[in-house]
UniProtKB/TrEMBL annotation, chains A, B:
Gene3D superfamilies: NAD(P)-binding Rossmann-like Domain, ProC-like, C-terminal domain. Coiled coil: none annotated. Transmembrane segments: none annotated. InterPro entries: 6-PGluconate_DH-like_C_sf (IPR008927), DUF2520 (IPR018931), NAD(P)-bd_dom_sf (IPR036291), P5C_Rdtase_cat_N (IPR028939), TM1727-like_C_sf (IPR037108). This is DUF2520 domain-containing protein. Residues 129-252 form the DUF2520 domain. It comes from Butyricimonas faecalis. Signal peptide: none annotated. It comes from the Bacteria. Residues 6-87 form the Pyrroline-5-carboxylate reductase catalytic N-terminal domain.
Length: 279, 279
């Protein structure tokens, strides 16, 4: 039997937490977990039963694959500091860092970028998470792809420039909507109402675009061009300049998209699936 | 056996479409559907097997309950025009119109406002949709509540001012996130990538706040205060002033929420539920 690659995980945050679980579930040979913070390292180490350290010079130098799940600002300095064998494969999981961050440190390197939002508290099916892979040579990419395929069913090959754009898009699709949920919760609180009232709406808003395109799914006053409702909403937000600005600029955006659609400027994408009718 | 109320549905748009289905499923006595547009009236009439009309003067004057599912700008004029018996109960389903729009036209009136986004193409379980009820007297409210309870399991009693705030919050929780999905899709298209890549992320973003609060669910560069990533994103958006503005103001909003939380200013709501751990 072929010997399994020794995998070292650098980082013990949200991504590392989920990736460690996925690696173990896939039967990979995860050997060690490093985190700058001993507590965090210990937490994930204890949970997985994998040995852990908070000392850079204790990281095993004979690993076959090092996966860096650390924040973008510390990645370069950690890569520079740790000692690895010259044949080690170096990977990171960042949406924004170019693959070439590893260039001076190994012959074999690449990226596995998961398009997902991770929190330690939240369980996820890793096989459903899209993984974007990139490698510095064709054969390295194949090797990374094989690893990725043991973890997930959704593998995309993209380059560093595409990944950067994807990461930006992910901010618009995840961080910003989540912030708007927070704003909505605040508006409800002001009226003595509970965030729970909006949960079915939020759920459906996301579910709708699992099959429809967002342009088809859009409803509401800006889409209908209902100026009197929009003016009423703006006057309700008079006391909060920032929210008023957000309301105005996003409503304008919706109106513009709508106009483009009506004039046929905005082409609809091809993956529209006709939904079954109601009864 | 008590005779069932004769229900007339005024409107045949997205809301009427779903409400008609829910009424029939609940065994209610839906008698007639009106729409200004004959095609739309016919469509819903044929689908439900209920008689339909596009003529205001053909609306049955002997209905017990008239439910107005029309856009806010035409509601007052339709209410003014149609003839109904003096004991009829008049209801609308609008998030923004005050209940008193009916005041001069009946002794019995109120509101059933569904907190949901409706599209004809999209099937929904109406029993899961929160319905906000309001009535001009206690007994009228009870009567509306009983009807609402035959349609849904989630009934809230709120007043017109609360409903207005709720509707504004719904715009932030639904229309705006959906618009941001559209923007994300556009950003991907620019890189030759497909919107489908973001679907699991969008799905998880919504699912996360079904149990967590949005402040707990937040991730990303603004939350981490990662200025170098944010600056990179802003430079990527240089060519599109509107998107740059949206990126900047929403990132600022996230940073502010984060600061408030760290200084303890922002109190966390009580309905945090601890999620099961990963393994």
């Amino acid at each position: 039997m072929e010997q399994q690659d020794k995998i070292i995980l650098i980082g013990a945050g949200n991504v590392a937490h989920h990736l460690a679980g996925a690696l173990l579930k896939a039967g990979e040979n995860l050997c060690q977990i490093y985190s700058r913070t001993l507590d965090t390292a210990r937490q994930l180490g204890m949970k997985t039963g994998i040995s852990y350290t908070a000392e850079l010079n204790e990281i095993y130098p004979d690993g076959d694959i090092y996966i860096f799940c650390v924040s973008d600002d510390v990645l370069p300095s950690i890569v520079k500091t740790i000692r690895v064998s010259e044949n080690a494969l170096l990977l990171h999981t960042s949406g924004s860092q170019p693959m070439d961050v590893f260039k001076s440190y190994s012959k074999y390197y690449g990226v596995i970028y998961p398009i997902q939002t991770f929190s330690k508290k939240r369980e996820l099916d890793f096989r459903e998470i899209p993984l974007c892979v990139e490698g510095n040579t064709v054969s390295v990419k194949e090797r990374i792809k094989e690893l990725a395929e043991r973890l997930s069913d959704k593998i995309y090959e993209i380059n560093s420039a595409q990944r950067k754009g994807l990461h930006l898009a992910a901010v618009f699709a995840n961080n910003f909507p989540n912030y708007l949920y927070q704003v909505a919760g605040k508006l409800l609180e002001n009226k003595g109402l509970s965030f729970a009232m909006l949960r079915p709406l939020i759920f459906e808003t996301a579910h709708k675009v699992m099959l429809l395109n967002p342009e088809e799914a859009q409803t509401g006053p800006a889409k209908r061009g209902d100026e009197s409702i929009m003016n009423m909403h703006k006057s309700m937000l008079k006391g909060d300049k920032d929210l008023l600005k957000i309301y105005t600029i996003l409503s304008e955006g919706i109106k513009e998209m709508q106009n483009k659609e009506e004039t046929g400027e905005q082409k609809l994408s091809q993956d529209i699936i006709d939904m079954p009718t109601l009864w």
